[in-house]
Write a sequence for this structure.
């Protein structure tokens, strides 16, 4: 059995790129009249984790619980790109151990590890190459993050960086604060204004318990 796994970090990201890669590999089939336009090929089980951050270890994600219930020895677990599955070296070793314990092969369709028939193979060569490539990828991400932080710091020093504008400002912010003062919950406010709970908490930052009280409007 072929088991396919896909993931995107946020609700605004699309699975389309991964689906194209999987279609080229014959694991998905284009379908007319279906909203997503793709379906699993014969003998393929598709599991997806939409809006799931890579900070959650692969084995703790919702779709992996379903994969664990379906996987059998001899199956192949396939992902389009390694970072869709594993965040770092520790995570990929955890997935490799998971696959080895169940007799499941692991394949990646693109990137420097795509030539391996089974990334979960227990031989020393596979383990060393995975260690090196994953460590280099992590190093590159760390450097990019460091440069981004330095760039923001430099822009702030010059007064050019303003950051992301708040989701709730002006009249909407005051409306949220007044409704919160009247007893409306943060969850209800988030739903009513179509924003995240974090955005509501930002608008209420100085009104949370122990951080001040919004004065009642005068009559």
């Amino acid at each position: 059995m072929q088991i396919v796994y896909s993931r995107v970090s946020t609700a605004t990201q699309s699975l389309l790129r991964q689906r194209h890669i999987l279609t080229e590999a014959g694991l998905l089939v284009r379908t007319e009249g279906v909203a997503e336009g793709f379906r699993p090929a014969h003998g393929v089980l598709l599991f997806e984790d939409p809006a799931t951050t890579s900070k959650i270890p692969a084995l703790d994600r919702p779709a992996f619980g379903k994969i664990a219930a379906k996987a059998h020895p001899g199956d192949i677990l396939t992902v389009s790109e390694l970072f869709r599955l594993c965040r770092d070296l520790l995570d990929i070793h955890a997935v490799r151990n998971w696959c080895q314990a169940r007799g499941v092969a692991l394949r990646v369709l693109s990137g420097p590890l795509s030539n391996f028939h089974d990334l979960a193979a227990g031989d020393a060569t596979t383990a060393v190459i995975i260690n090196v490539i994953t460590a280099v990828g992590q190093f590159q991400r760390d450097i990019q993050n460091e440069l981004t932080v330095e760039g923001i710091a430099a822009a702030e020093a010059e007064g050019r960086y303003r950051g992301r504008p708040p989701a709730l400002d002006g009249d909407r912010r005051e409306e949220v604060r007044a409704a919160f003062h009247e007893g409306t919950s943060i969850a209800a406010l988030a739903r009513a204004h179509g924003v995240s709970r974090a955005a509501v908490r930002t608008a209420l930052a100085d009104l949370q318990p122990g951080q001040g009280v919004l004065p009642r409007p005068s009559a």
